[in-house]
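Journal club prep — side note

Before the paper discussion, L.F. wants everyone to see what a predicted structure for a comparable chain looks like in token form. Sequence:
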Amino acid sequence: MVQRILLNRLVQQCFQGKILLLMGGRQVGKTTLLKQLTEHIQVPIRWFNADEADYRAAFTAADTSSTLLQLVGAETRLVIIDEAQQIPEIGKKLKLLYDTAPDLQIIATGSSAFDLNNRTQEPLTGRKTVFQLYPISYQEFVRHSSLTEARRMLQNRLLYGSYPDVINNPGHEKEVLLELTNSYLYKDLLQLDGIRKSSVLQKLLQALALQTGSEVHYHELAQTIGNIQPATVEKYIELLEQSYVLHKLPAFSRNLRNEIKKGKKYYFLDNGIRNALLSNFAPPELRSDKGALLENFLVTERLKYNHYRQYRPNTYFWRTHDQAEIDYLEENDGQIQAFEFKWKAQKTRFPSSFLNSYPVQDTRLIHVNGFEEFIGGKDL
């Protein structure tokens, strides 16, 4: 079993006077991570899975501090509420527990940021610490096996992604991904009012998968899908971001007149989901989109690496109307790092208009034979 980087931080944060919120998409390993955590904390524990109707009903009915404490149990010192977004007014209930039983450690997980965060943001102000869990990172895989093994399995990661069930079922990756996309990918979204057509979501995601690494325009997507307005496309994409399916990279623009100012690119938080939506698991050497495969992998793995080391740069792509471009930028403390992604190592020139206009600290080419440092594969 792959040990997650967040485990030690979660253990250290327990009983430090905060509610811990563990956020992440469905099936990324939140429950498994918390089971590992309970092995390190020897106190009476009570676990509730809010996906189950009886637990959800019990929390829904408990609306006072006394009924909540009775539900949790007087002897309990650690309470875990899995998929807490399923419980109405969960933020107020967690606040009641926190204020009434300050010695009780509360951990809540959620797979829907648009739901759990909205419900907890105000009630839990100053009372929570939020953690984000992603599919297994390249760095975690290296720590679990070795750099050599991780490199050997790179094609699998590019094609099948890094969901725990995918990694734990070699030879059955396609079946696992099909189950993930059919049973879990839209589960929270389709519970929302106004989002009832999974076929529209499917077409939208397929269109986005075909545009990986390219600038996205809502009106063009609406025309591609048909029978949908650009505003609805924008709404759906925002919800897909908030449910941990997509990651947005905005355009960088500060000084130059011909810079694209409101552009955006979208990446899938897992390569396997992207390929499942396209029904394409052909090896990279047979694909016209192998550059997009690598770019999606590198952007999302960099996101994981930065998050787990608590590094929070602003991230962008850069492009001008005359087609000068840089794939990926990080801005931190007024300094910019610029990165280009190519399948093979090759001589790369970064646009002089950008280099002359901005405080660029570093420029680097990241390619399939030299990427580990960029995503933490050598940071052991």
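L.F.'s comment for the group: The two ends are 18 Å apart (CA to CA). Keep this in mind when we get to the figures.
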